[in-house]
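User
New here, explain this?
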Amino acid sequence: MEIRILAPLSLAIASAGFVATLFFRDTFVIGILRSFFEAAMVGGLADWFAVVALFDHPLGLPIPHTAILRTKRKKLEQSLLTMLEKLLPKEDIEAKIRKFNLVDRTIRFWNNKEKRRWLLGGLRRLLIRLVQQLDAAEIAKALTSLIQGISIQRVPVLSKQLSIYLVANRKNVNCIPEKALVGCVNAVNQFCNKQESTEKIEKLLTETLDKKTIFRVAKMAGIPASQFAAKQLAEWLISWLRTESELELQGNRINKLREFYTMLYRNLANELNDPASQISRGIDGFWLNWITGSNSQNVLARHLEQYRADLLEDLEEFESKFIAHISSTVDEFIVRLLQDRSFRTQVETWLNDKIPKIVTTLHATAKMYIKDKLADYSDNELISIIKKNVGRDLQYIRLNGALIGGLVGVSLHCIRGMIH
């Protein structure tokens, strides 16, 4: 018979048996039965009250110290967390991690080809699932919001950073401004070596400058007034640009183009360093207008989605370049650990220093996780889970209470009979 039925049935039988014996003449057998049923009824009722009082108010009456799981839930949760903290003290965890010898075990694990293949395969599958779940639009929204907050708080931001970049990289051949100069010089040199370039310059001069201005430019260039014409000025400009650009391309840093570029570079850096300058205000205004506009989020989302698609396509390949890069990086790290004793000592020292912080963080995280998980359940849900797991044992307590109470009642009746 199901214990959920047997426990209340035993109480009902004890109660009915006790009531029934009241209607019989008091004999030795009836006395024993009455004592048994009376004590069984009392024991069953007491255990029923105790079991019900754990979860609810018996008969719906607000009796003090009942419905313990509901009224004392916070204290019970805190007691559980305290007990877990005592069962898993941070000091013991730290000691076990130190004895684990992470560096040696990591080296042995990585040098095992099968384990390495298993780890990289698992990492690839995990990354695929993570990348598949990424929402580029949501990430772009969060990043844009973060950038907007930083930008608005730290204006001027872009012009100042550009000034710092220009000053720091003035003599760096790999910096963007220097590469831009090389690109421009190449373009100028190629333009000057084309046959139609003189005609284009001549047309540009005549359409954009008046004759007096052209005459003054020609005079500065040393062209005699008797020989002056827009064509001669154009030829002179082409010749000058070709000569200066070739000097730059040959690695000769003394040329007019570089001098002109250096002057512009220096003036631009100075202008950007001044937040009140027109260039700074213009760049910062453009940056703020763009980053606070709706289009910035859409642009960022498109780029992130493309990166996500490219990464996913690579990860789905068995010979993933991304995973191969990770493997290669770890290989280099392991080789250095084996060959460079000082580096290995540094890593071990760093790990030993970090272990207490990591354990403390994980310990706090575990406690917070358990606390949050408990908070996710309502009182009724939590009680339902407890009943599902220990309810059968609680019903046995009720049944045992009735049986033991009955036996105690019989024993007391016999003792009383022997005394009298």
User: Anything to note?
Assistant: The mean pLDDT is 81. DSSP finds 19 helices and no strands in the chain. The longest helix spans residues 379-419.
